[in-house]
From TrEMBL:
It comes from Saprospira grandis (strain Lewin). GTP binds at residues 107-114, 190-194, 248-251. Its EC number is 3.6.5.4. Involved in targeting and insertion of nascent membrane proteins into the cytoplasmic membrane. Binds to the hydrophobic signal sequence of the ribosome-nascent chain (RNC) as it emerges from the ribosomes. The SRP-RNC complex is then targeted to the cytoplasmic membrane where it interacts with the SRP receptor FtsY. Belongs to the GTP-binding SRP family. SRP54 subfamily. One of its GO terms (cellular component) is signal recognition particle. GO terms for molecular function: 7S RNA binding; GTP binding; GTPase activity. It catalyses: GTP + H2O = GDP + phosphate + H(+). CDD domains: SRP_G. Part of the signal recognition particle protein translocation system, which is composed of SRP and FtsY. This is Signal recognition particle protein. GO terms for biological process: SRP-dependent cotranslational protein targeting to membrane. It comes from the Bacteria.
């Protein structure tokens, strides 16, 4: 995400690194490079121009006040502040205060509405203890209703659907009546999308909105469509005046133009971002953290939050003991892999570590690498997993065959495991004095 923008901005700041102070000339050069970087990231020229005008004004205004700050650092700080501003300043929550709170989901077909509905349901249920019902209002595609049913089951919330009713307003109202009876805290109404903006769809969604009076209307859009995403966001807002935007598929968006332009163009905040197909992560959009990511500073706060969500104190203590005794085995390793998987896409996790954004971009991190390791461990007998020392030549052959690998690959994996174990053991000895070693979860 944002990898080219990051590189190009970096180059723009480097322009200044040899200079002693900011001058009209070096600011102009730098600002021009920043503008080009933004346009390359698919930010509309007008927005890029207005952005860099502000940066220029700030830079020239501050250069005499903050004389001790190096020009490059000052520029980074100014750009960071302006990026935060461009993306809306503060993060904005959703309103679900009613009985029930009603969230209406709108967007084009394939934008990620159903997936997001699942993520939001899971989040409200697990993190905020809400009783959630989803209502299936896509009357054109029975497959869409079934897909929502699958998602609802996956995250453990109830669904209201009427397979034979073709009137979305009726379905939504019936569903809400049911939710009132069942004392649900929140309903999420998933609506039908089309492949492109059309009048019929707009009329329908506007009618649903008018009838159910949602406490929150969210517009879902695929960030990979760049400027189109911004235009669609504008078209929907002109018609249904939504409260916030959900930007999906940021995991595949390398440019980032939509994230940077939507607030400016539409005047509505991005409230959530989606970075994967799995149900397990819902990311609240924080303009400041996003700006840090864009500038390659990482997003350590989100990373720590993610880790904490899945942190199991008891399990950590148990592991700590085993490591201290040098007894960390393949069962433990398997559990750790599952833990990391739960946190989401590996590349995006590494990108959140300060300084690692650029590195993560260049290395090819294949989440499937885990599959290979898991296959190897799963081909071991319980005895081998609990006691790696017993794995001899004939066992290696069997494991290789069972997991579809060559014996050399098994050897290599066992060597790496042994090294890792030794390193953890030594680290635990070094820290034993301090007493509170934490497993790198
Ligand atoms: P809908 O038609 O708007 O309900 O869209 P869906 O929720 O069915 O999503 C369309 C496709 O995009 C599906 O294949 C999803 O798995 C995928 N998808 C949704 N959100 C994301 C995301 O954040 N990242 C990626 N990579 N894929 C996503």
């Amino acid at each position: 995400m944002f990898s080219n923008l990051q590189d190009n901005l970096d180059a723009a700041f480097k322009n200044l690194s040899g200079d002693g102070k900011l001058t009209e000339i070096n600011v102009a050069t730098s600002v021009k490079a920043i503008r080009r970087a933004l346009v390359d990231a698919d930010v509309n020229y007008k927005i890029a121009k207005s952005f860099t005008d502000k940066v220029k004004e700030e830079a020239l205004g501050k250069r005499n006040v903050l004389k001790s700050v190096r020009p490059g650092d000052l520029m980074v700080k100014i750009v960071q502040d302006e990026l935060v501003e461009l993306m809306g300043g503060q993060s904005v929550g959703i309103n679900i205060k009613a009985n029930p709170g009603i969230v209406l989901i709108a967007g084009l077909q394939g934008s990620g509405k159903t997936t997001f509905t699942g993520k939001l349901s899971r989040h409200l249920k697990n993190k905020r203890n809400k009783k959630v019902m989803v209502i299936a209002c896509d009357v054109y595609r029975p497959a869409a209703i079934n897909q929502l049913a699958v998602v609802a089951e996956q995250v453990g919330v109830d669904i209201y659907k009427e397979m034979d009713n073709k009137n979305p307003v009726e379905i939504a109202l019936n569903g809400i009546a049911e939710a009132k009876k069942g004392k649900y805290d929140v309903v999420i109404v998933d609506t039908a999308g089309r492949l492109a903006v059309d009048e019929e769809m707009m009329t329908e969604i506007a009618a649903v909105k008018e009838a159910i009076q949602p406490t929150e209307t969210l517009f879902v859009v695929d960030s990979m469509t760049g400027q189109d995403a911004v235009n669609t966001a504008k078209a929907f807002n002109d018609r249904i005046n939504y409260d916030g935007v959900v930007l999906t598929k940021l995991d595949g968006d390398t440019r980032g133009g939509a994230a940077l332009s939507i607030k400016y163009t539409v005047g509505k905040p991005i409230k959530f971002i989606s970075m994967g197909e799995k149900m397990d992560t819902l990311d609240i959009f924080h303009p400041d953290r996003m700006a840090q990511r864009i500038l390659g500073m990482g997003d350590i706060i989100s990373l720590v939050e993610k880790a904490q969500e899945d942190f199991d104190e008891k399990e950590a203590k148990r592991l700590e003991k085993k490591i201290r005794k040098n007894q960390f085995d393949f069962n433990d390793f398997l559990k750790q892999l599952a833990q990391i998987r739960k946190m989401g896409n590996l590349k995006s996790l590494i990108g959140m570590i300060p300084g690692m954004g650029k590195i993560a971009k260049d290395i090819d991190i294949d989440d499937n690498a885990f599959n290979k390791i898991e296959a190897i461990i799963l081909s071991m007998t319980p005895e081998e997993r609990g006691n790696p020392g017993v794995i001899n030549g004939s066992r290696k052959k069997r494991i290789a065959k069972g997991s579809g690998n060559r014996v050399e690959e098994i050897n290599q994996f066992l060597r790496q495991f042994e090294q890792m174990r030794k390193m953890m053991f030594q680290m635990s000895k070094m820290q034993a004095g301090g007493g509170n070693m934490r497993m790198p979860n």
